[in-house]
Amino acid sequence: MIKNLSTIVLVVLLSACSRENIPFSSGALAGQPTESPASWVDVASAEIIQLETKGDEAYSVNLWVIGKQDWMYVYAGDNYPTWAEHLESNPTARLEAEGKLYGVQATRVTDQAEFEKFAKDWEAKYGSTGPEGLKVGDVWLYRLAAN
Fold it and tell me: 131 near 122, Cβ under 8 Å?
């Protein structure tokens, strides 16, 4: 009885969430292929975007992003998630935001000064101190530029 009630509660909670807010991975993204914008700031104004990487199969996740003029950042913290592993072996990826798909090329950020600027932007957008005070070599931060 408790197991059935727990299952019902879980289904209700998940059905109340939009697809973008469910923190599970999925496969290939759907959307309208779109040329990269002149500035990534508007694309990154969405709180969450979807990133598709390529391993043996397409793998997509929902991520928080920071947008700049010529690129966006995606951040995994000090975790080494599947999507970061994929980007290390194949830096070509796709983003989905508001039904539009963008081809991107990922580069891991290794410069501490660039990381510190990112951390300040992260805190300003999301209101958390997440990356501040960390060392760039201890985290997984990627700069995504037009493919």
Answer: yes
Q: Distance between CA atoms of 19 and 26, rounded to whole angstroms?
A: 11
Measured CA angle at 69 (ends 77, 107), to 5 deg: 40
Task: Band the pLDDT of 90: cuts 50, 70, 90.
Answer: very high
E-strand spans in the chain?
A: 32-33, 48-54, 58-67, 71-75, 92-97, 100-108, 141-146
**Could you tell me the residue ranges of all domains in the chain?**
21-146
Does domain 21-146 bear CATH number 3.40.50.2300? no
C-alpha span between 110 and 142 (Å, rounded): 9
Say yes or no to pLDDT of 4 above 50: no
Q: What's the confidence (pLDDT) of residue 6?
A: 40
Contact call for residues 146 and 104 (beta carbons, < 8 A): yes
| CB atoms inside a 10 Å sphere around CB 113 | 8
